[in-house]
Amino acid sequence: MGPVAASLKTKTLNDNPCFIMKKSVVIIAFFMSFVSAVAQTEQFHTDMKLRDSFWLDTTSADFQNILDLWENYKFCVFYDWCKLQEDSLWEPKGPLFWERSERCKYKNPDWILQSLQLVPYDYISGKELLIGIEKRNDTLFELRTMFYDQSNDSIKMRGVFTLPVVKHSDSDYKFFTKLSLIKPTLQKYQIGWLTFLYPVGYNFDNDSAESTFVAADSFVKALGLDNPKQFEYYLFETRTDFWRSIGVDVSPYDFIGCSRVYSGGRCFNECNIAFYTCGGESSAHELLHFLIYQKHPERESSEFEEGVCSYFGGHSNETKDVLLLRLKDWLNENQQIDLSASLSGYADFTENYTYMIQMVICEMVYKKGGIEMVFEMLFSISNNDDEYDAIEKYLSIKRKNLNKTFREYLNNNY
Ligand SMILES: [Zn+2]
Known about the structure:
This protein is α+β, with helices and mostly antiparallel strands. Among the domains are: 61-182, Nuclear Transport Factor 2, Chain: A; 299-414, no CATH class. It has 15 helices and ten strands. The protein has helices spanning 3-15, 17-47, 61-86, 100-106, 111-114, 120-125, 178-182, 206-223, 239-245, 285-295, 303-313, 320-333, 353-380, 387-395, 399-413, and strands at 127-135, 140-151, 154-169, 172-175, 187-191, 194-198, 231-235, 248-250, 265-268, 273-276. The strands form two sheets. Strands 1, 2, 3, 4 and 8 form a five-stranded antiparallel sheet that branches. 28% of the residues are buried. The model is unreliable at 1-14 (pLDDT under 50). The protein binds zinc ion.
């Protein structure tokens, strides 16, 4: 068949109404299946909580620039840390890698990485797996990386995190915090110096929030703080949600239990913010840490401070009586535990007997000398090793007698 015959045949076929209809059906069917495939993909992504990834090509200029920023940053944080060992007045340069707004808000936004228990030494010598860099839009990128421990044959994850990066020009990229990106989507409830923030859909309890503020504010007066700084208290359903709000995509704390609703919080004193899981509006624990820090910012936190915050501000959303009854049973079942030998190390991810022990010590001091004596003892402890001396000074209990006296007190009172 020559070219003329071919074109004639084609023309004849194309003009045939039946063929036109068939062709239209095929096109419509193709279009419908395309729309359906897109819709299904979106539905699948929604169901699976997946995002459409937009990983940068590793040869692209943005990828290379952001990678340089990250490598330089890690070296700078390590260098700052070394310099501070020999010169306490050294002005760290690491914070300059962050957007100015983030430095104003959080002083040193490196707290996000530190929350994974990373120390500057890890930035240079730690085991890291860079996962990639995603592009959100022309000026916003997200670097995703993972740190892990490797000893002998085992590998333990420290955390996977996302670090947003803002691009001002081809030569000016700055780190940004995930928290600042999600903050505009959160609900707010302000009382005095305290602002609660929580996601849409969180079942926030206004009355509990008001009572918690009153409890914390009474501490402001007891500590003699003139004007507490404004404080932001973030509440999320689970620990996983609160870690993700600061860019920690996968944390070792995600694997505590199937429900992942194990309650607890975390205060970042220098940044004036704290986090808590569901029901945190009923707990002043993290707020008390912040107020104690404001009274004496230079001092290190101690285990006794955990006892003070748990006794007056709550622990794990459970009442003092429930917690101390549980401690009593646990100590009675474990007679081999000698509190005269150590007050530390009685905690795992789900139960923190160390905090409960410190709650009892706090109660004993409070009953003897009121809140004034509690603060006096708290501020006399510069590290956990001092605590036995402080107990002897304020409670007149010698270290060798503490195990027996403590157990008797608990059995008689709870
Ligand atoms: Zn605490």
